[in-house]
Amino acid sequence: MSALLDATLDHLRALVGFDTRNPPRAIDTGGIFDYLRAQLPGFAVTVTDFGAGAVSLHAVRGTPRYLFNVHLDTVPDSPAWTADPHTLRVTDKHAIGLGACDIKGAAAALLAVANASDGDMALLFSTDEEANDPRCIAGFLRAFPPPPSGEGCYQAVIVAEPTKGEVVLAHRGIQSVLMRFTGHAGHASGEQKAGDSALHQVVRWGDAALDFVVAQSHERFGGLTGLRFNIGRIEGGIKANMIAPTAEVRFGMRPLPTMHPDTLLKQLRALAEPEPAHYEETFRGPSLPAGDTARAEERRLAARDIADELELPVGNAVDFWTEAALFSAAGHLAFVYGPGDIAQAHSADEWVELDQLQRYAESIQRIVDRGLA
Fold it and tell me: Are residues 245 and 148 in contact, defined by beta-carbon separation less than 8 angstroms?
């Protein structure tokens, strides 16, 4: 193993040892942030507590052009883990531990590079990515909005997520929705009108919604096709011989950058007959790149130019969501680049390949040493 990989694994062993599960997100400005401060001599460091375990650290050395962002929170571990999830295990090919893939491996590599090089560098660590509660990024964007001229701000934000060491220029947005239906309780032996059973309303809406999604299959952007849609939960009713007076459905969708979320919400709501008693969007994450069709493509190509300048391999667009979209929506150029495979993220005995960790760390060091960062 190279000295850079050795240092990365040392940092990863320490980072995995900190419990940053989200939930419960029992994180404060000490603990893992004390460790980060100690590893960043020569950096101007600002730690901000946004409450409820959402803490960020912004570290700057010199006058860098690019900001490297990585989240430190992890999903909870499951009973399927075969060993202590907070103790890093290293084999001849893998580093295994909670968050090793998603995405403390990248954080460890960035720390290793920060100590192996004295070049200009900017880092942003956060702790609230895994719970649809982006306080850290929202707070950073309030403090560092991109000015209209583009002068004095970062030229681009490079967000670390598991992309197999390839740059991702585009991904879907995400929306989560809660719908509630009301009907009329009664005996199920009689003939029912269309609106009597709340559960029947949900089923009819679901059937229409699935047909609507199929009709979007021709839509395309950057290698992505169609609308991703999932009915995740249906609740309601009392028993088989009673008409259901209430029902609730939660669904999610992942639109292309060229799809308009508000239009989709309106169209899906209109499929319900009668109209649902309650219709609430519980989370929205924009697509990457953000903007209308022309603007999104312009930003995608601009981000590709930067990736080419940095000599980073460009991969395909992905279906999963990242916080790069939040930077893009605020006006920053942004793309996603990190070690690890999304198939390992959130899994028991989560791992990241040592080869990918090393290649990622070496690419960041090359960027910093050449003064490109």
Answer: no
